[in-house]
Amino acid sequence: MFDRLSTRLQDAFAKLRSKGRLSEDDVKEALREIRRALLDADVHHTVAKELTERIREQAVGQEILQSLTAAQQVVKIVNDELVAVMGGEQAKLGRSAKPPTVILMAGTQGAGKTTASAKLARYLTETEHRRVLLVAADVYRPAAIQQLEILGAQIGVSVFSQGTDVAPPEIVGHALDEARRGGYDTVIVDTAGRLHVDEALMVELEQIQAVSTPEEILLVVDAMTGQDAVNVAESFHKRFPLTGVILTKMDSDTRGGAALTVRHITGCPVKFIGTGEKMDALEPFYPDRLASRILGMGDVLTLIERAQATIDEDEARNLEAKLRRNEFTLEDFLTQLRQVKKLGPLDQILGMLPGMGKLKQLQGDAVDDRQLKKVEAIILSMTRQERLQPELVMKSSSRRVRIASGSGTQVRDVNQLLKQFDDMRKLFKQFSGMGKGSRKAMSGLANSLRSGGGGAAFPSAGGRNKRRR
Ligand SMILES: Nc1nc2c(ncn2[C@@H]2O[C@H](COP(=O)(O)OP(=O)(O)OP(=O)(O)O)[C@@H](O)[C@H]2O)c(=O)[nH]1
Ligand SMILES: [Mg+2]
After folding, report:
1. Angle at Cα 254 formed by Cα 248 and Cα 255, nearest 5°?
2. DSSP 108
3. pLDDT tens-place string over residues 147-185
């Protein structure tokens, strides 16, 4: 997400920083680079122009140019402007005074409506303890209802459906009755997608709106389609009073333009982003955190929240105690590794740490699932005694040969794992403090990742310095 934009902006800032006191020309040149980087990230040209213009107005003032921290101040201005263009504050979902709160999901074909409906149901259930009823109102695409039912079952949320013979507005009416009867406080309506924003779709959405007076009408758009996503949002919003946008597929190779532009062009806030196919891959959209990710300042807050949600605190505390007593074994190592994996793909995690952008590119695929399996295989090929006392393996080459052949790996993989086990002890020591939300632990983690070469702590399949893509 935003890799290229991020790299280019940071390069522009690095150039500024190297100059000490800045001249007006230095700033202008940096602005040209910033503007080019934005356009290249598929940011709408009027937005790129306005953004750089506003930055220029603030940055070329005499006070800044004469100050010794000019470059830093320019970065701060860019940061603030990025936050502003993305809408400033995080936009929360409303709740109607008279329950149930209805959330209507709309969008073009394949944008990710059904997936986002289910993810949102899960999110609201888990974070706000809402009682959610999902409604299958796509009666056109074969298997659309079944898709929602499968997802609902997966996340433990009820799905209301009436087959394909009842008209969607009627289904929604019945679903509301059901919600009132069943004590559901939130109803999420998954609707059909159309190829284009066409009249039939709009009429149907209007009918659904009339029977359900939704609190939220969320447009789901595919971030990968860049400017198209923005155009879809614009034409939708002209015709229909959207209350928010969900940008999906932010995990794929999107250049980020849509995230930076939608709000400014449509006036409609982005409320969530989808970052993967799994049900937990939905994040509230925080302009400030995203700006800070783009500028390479990390997003420690999101990482901490994710850690709190996924890391088992008791387990973490237990491991932390073991570390303190120096009783950390390869078995614990494996447990920890599995916990870290739960946080998400490593490159995503690294992207949230300050200053990790560059390292991330080097380490991109150092820790994929294959790697985890390899480490698991090696550790599981050891005897329990060996796992508890890695020194036994370190001292004996015959043990290492046996373990390598038992796990289908090379002796050097085993060596590498052992050699790096010590680094990991330090790393995980800081990591396990994270469950309590300590920022200090996070910066410690960032440091040890940096000094220890980050994902290099894991054995790498095809050479550690291989670049991704
Ligand atoms: N990588 C990634 N894939 C996603 C994301 N959201 C949805 N998808 C995938 O996109 C595809 C389409 O998603 P759906 O939820 O079926 O889209 P839809 O808008 O309901 O599609 P129609 O009902 O046919 O209009 C599926 O394969 C999803 O797994 C996301 O955030 N990241
Ligand atoms: Mg669908």
Report:
1. 135
2. B
3. 999 999 999 999 999 999 999 999 999 999 999 999 999
Question: Cα 17 to chain center, whole Å?
Answer: 30
> Going from the N-terminus, what domains does the chain have, and what CATH number goes with each?
3-85 (1.20.120.140), 101-295 (3.40.50.300), 302-457 (1.10.260.30)
The DSSP symbol for 328 reads -
Q: Of 17, 18, 11, whose CA–CA distance to 34 is shortest?
A: 11
88 CA distance to ligand 1 middle (Å): 28
> What does DSSP assign to residue 270?
E
> What spacing in Å lies between the alpha carbon of 148 and ligand 2's midpoint?
8
Other Cβ atoms less than 10 A from the Cβ of 215: the count is 20
In sequence order, what are the residues at sequence separation of 6 or more whose Cβ sits closer than 8 angstroms to the Cβ of residue 400? 393, 411, 414, 415, 418
Mutate to test the pocket of ligand 1, among 248, 250, 270 (most ligand atoms within 8 A of CB): 248
Give the ligand with the smallest distance to the CA of 247: 1
Q: What is the pLDDT of residues 187-221, one digit of tens each?
A: 999 999 877 777 888 899 999 999 999 999 999 99
Q: How far is the CA of 120 from the centre of ligand 1 (A)?
A: 13
The Cα 416–Cα 235 span in angstroms is 56
Closest residue by Cα to residue 137 from 104, 96, 99, 100: 104
Helix axes 70-85, 3-17, angle to 10 degrees: 150
